[in-house]
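Q: Can I see a sequence and its folded structure?
A: Here is a first one.
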Amino acid sequence: MKSKLSLFTLFAILCINSISAQTKIIKTDAEWKKILSPAEYQVLRKAGTERAFSGKYDHFYEKGTYYCAACGTPLFSSKNKFDSGSGWPSFDNHIGNNVGFNEDHRFGDTITEIICNICDGHLGHMFMDGPKKTTGKRYCVNSLALKFKKSQ
């Protein structure tokens, strides 16, 4: 019984890893430049940041889902959006395992960069000053990194 369980576990891990490898989107800079606007490219591929209060989703509260502007992966639900007053769209949670995390040392302190787990596009940063009644997290996202689809 023990060896069957171990073989099953190994098989499951291999299947999950092969599925993950198949869904990862890798493109050259030239390919990204063809499908993204210059501003989207600067944010998503070069970890840029749009000016505060300039993004179209900052004060946008329709019901639906926010997708990665580069690859179309669902990232955030409008149910998790809140007004942080920061000037960027803010969410207290993300969808599934579609958002990844990296340490970012560019600004002197270590902060948490958030990326799309499918295409590695830069989305913004996560801070621990979000709503305490939910997760306490604030996913501070560039509007240029998002595309919105309204719920039916």
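Q: Show me another, different protein.
A: A second, unrelated one:
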Amino acid sequence: MRVSRLDPALFFWRRKNVLSGVMCVHVDDILWAGTEEFFTTIVAAMKDNLTIGTSNDGKSFKYIGVNIVQEDGVLGLHQNDYVDSLEEIGLSRARASRRLDHLGQGELQSYRALVGQLNWLGTQTRPDVAFDVCELSTVLNVATVDDVLRANKVVKKVKQRRVTLQYRSLDCTDGYTLVCYSDASFGNLPGGGSQGGYVIFLVDSHGMKFHPL
């Protein structure tokens, strides 16, 4: 297999100059896709020479915390299992009423942990909460009770609205295009900071199908 020039953890396997297999590695987790020949020549040989903890060759499985579902020619990515594991930070009614109070050490640790969990979610499959997480991250050292309440609200948001990113086969017979949309707002973060954002799509040759990268 040949290492990608763009990512040293991404590998390609070609037969007669045709891409027949792809494999990516994250620490000790491996994800692959390809032809039957790719499986028998490369994957089966790896399984014979490596100690494999668990493996899944089905159409629905989990890879580094992301659920991958293949159905009717559509590839879907979601983190619903991960979302179900999220828990709000518990506050008594009296504590919740003191919204401007700074957090104690234990509360601050819980807040940082929850923001970290939400950040993982926002960067993988939930771009709809990316700004919420950014806003929560700007006050990690000076968070207040009000920030905890806002973080809990984001947890409610991701639990109430389930999101699956969907990818369909692209027609790239005439090549493909990368399309980027970007925007920024001045002074829209707590403390006067500014936030910018972007989303990059892979678009087929007809400009009909957009896949978020």
